[in-house]
Specification:
This protein is α/β, with parallel strands linked by helices and about 475 residues long.
């Protein structure tokens, strides 16, 4: 490729790797993605795990740099890094899974690899050869590659590369075929792991004394244990408290252990969950719930109450004083008991559409905010209402409709039809990561349009966002409803 001015200027403006290096957050992005993807050789991660890892990273940075250093939640940063204008992560859904997953894009891998070349290189020779071999041997015991033959093949490959590089720089030299290290301490010093070994020994001794059931976890996850070494005594204290108070029915904030606080627990839920599964009796664990998002339900803590935000669209059915904005938020139990005297319920995932929804007799609108309708589960009175879901006309919009129908099979779509799509062609945008999986609960017309979208028959990655639909078009569609 030519490295002339025009080519480089074009790359500077458009290439994701260059955009990453120019980003104000490049140190965070590159270091975090290197730690969770590149260093452990992880190819993809579920959104919940990646969000938790980034929250931990952000928590540490805010402790050092101040709370305003990285003000957004981890999920927002990940979605931003996966957006089309960044292109540093790929966000997608695995077959049969509704949970988003992430992996690195090739451009990000290139940028991180190039940054690695900027650090000082070890001298290419016997010392470099030994350090590389020790690092690879270390990976054999701790790395993600499970096949010993594959690891040995990797060692041979790296050794051949080093031989060739040394010959190019120094010419052919006699080098030792093997090395003998007298003591473990000498071996640890040679590979620069003496301090980690001491920390790990302290973790093992403390665990043996205070929570022996967790020893098997420490043995399986030595690197994770070292990552949380600074909090390990408090984590063991937390496990001990929960074992003494199984399924306590209180909020995490109410765990009464000196030095333990809610942020510590929330930042280490994955580690705590894995240890609690080893330490608690079976009846203290609700196996229906799993993952960091369901930590409280799994171990019997009170969770933040699910909330429902809605607007009453009929002034005659107003719950607040006349003339008051009927934008109301209640917990899910209160919403279930309302049993409002309405005939139609609209669900929209866009807040502006929710706020601007026009007055309509015998109707209310619920702010859905994307995937997940657990907050509506107990509102059985919705079964008697005509429920209409209004989402983006894209593959994810239809996936959310499909999910709503698992709870409310009679729900209909609103303004998610082919005519609406074609009438707003000038407002089409790109959907970042279209779904390809089947959606079993769509009606025939919806299924036909969804198939056209997921197979790129109209245009690749087509999306019509609901807020781009003309307001007069919305009012006309509402007037036509029975």
């Amino acid at each position: 490729m030519s490295l002339d001015y025009a080519t480089l200027d074009l790359l500077r403006q458009n290439h994701p790797a260059w955009r990453l290096l120019r980003s104000d957050h490049a140190p965070l992005i590159a270091s975090f993605l290197h730690r969770v993807f590149v260093a452990p050789n992880v190819r993809l991660m579920a959104q919940a795990d990646l969000v938790e890892a980034l929250e931990d990273e952000l928590f540490g940075l805010r402790e050092r740099l101040g709370p305003s250093a990285f003000p957004k939640p981890a999920r927002e940063y990940l979605n931003d890094w996966a957006a089309n204008d960044k292109g540093w992560l790929r966000k997608f859904y695995r077959p049969g899974s509704d949970e988003p997953h992430f992996d690195l894009t090739p451009a990000t891998e290139k940028a991180i690899a190039w940054l690695g070349t900027l650090t000082a290189r070890a001298f290419v020779g016997t010392e470099s050869r030994l350090l590389t071999l020790f690092a690879l041997l270390e990976q054999m015991s701790e790395g993600s590659e499970a096949d010993p033959e594959a690891r040995l093949a990797e060692i041979d490959r790296r050794r051949t590369e080093l031989d060739a590089e040394q010959a190019r720089i120094l010419g052919t030299n006699l080098v030792p075929d093997e090395v003998w290290v007298d003591t473990l301490d000498d071996a640890l010093a040679l590979i620069g792991k003496g301090r980690d070994a001491r920390h790990f020994g302290a973790i093992v001794a403390l665990t043996q004394k205070r929570q022996p059931a967790a020893l098997s976890w420490v043995a399986r996850h030595p690197l994770k244990a070292l990552e949380v070494a600074g909090h390990w005594p408090l984590l063991l204290d937390t496990v001990a408290w929960i074992c003494t108070h199984p399924r306590p029915g209180v909020y995490l904030r109410q765990i009464d252990v000196p030095g333990v606080h809610t942020k510590l627990i929330e930042a280490n839920r994955t580690v705590l969950a894995e240890i609690l599964d080893l330490s608690l009796a079976g009846e203290a664990i609700d196996a229906r719930y799993a993952g960091v998002a369901q930590f409280c339900r799994r171990y019997g803590f009170r969770d933040k109450p699910a909330r429902v935000r809605f607007r009453v669209l009929d002034p005659r059915r107003a719950l607040l004083a006349p003339g008051t904005d009927q934008d109301i938020t209640v917990n899910a139990d209160a919403f279930a008991r309302l049993d409002l005297p309405v005939e139609r319920v609209f669900v929209t995932e866009n807040e502006i559409n929710f706020l601007a929804f026009p007055p309509l007799v015998e109707s209310l609108v619920v702010f859905g905010a994307g995937y997940g309708f657990d907050n509506l589960t107990r509102a059985t009175w919705l079964q008697r209402c005509a429920v209409r879901y209004w989402g983006d006309i894209d593959t994810h919009g239809f996936a959310i409709l499909d999910e709503l129908r698992e709870l409310l099979p009679h729900a209909q779509s609103f303004l998610m039809d082919r005519e609406t799509l074609l009438q707003h062609a000038s407002l089409w945008v790109d959907e970042p990561q279209p779904l390809r999986r089947d959606l079993p609960r769509l009606r025939p017309a919806e299924q036909a349009l969804f198939d056209d979208l997921r197979h790129d028959r109209i245009r690749p990655a087509l999306r019509l966002e609901q807020e781009r639909i003309g307001f007069r078009w919305v009012e006309t569609a509402l007037a036509r409803l029975p």
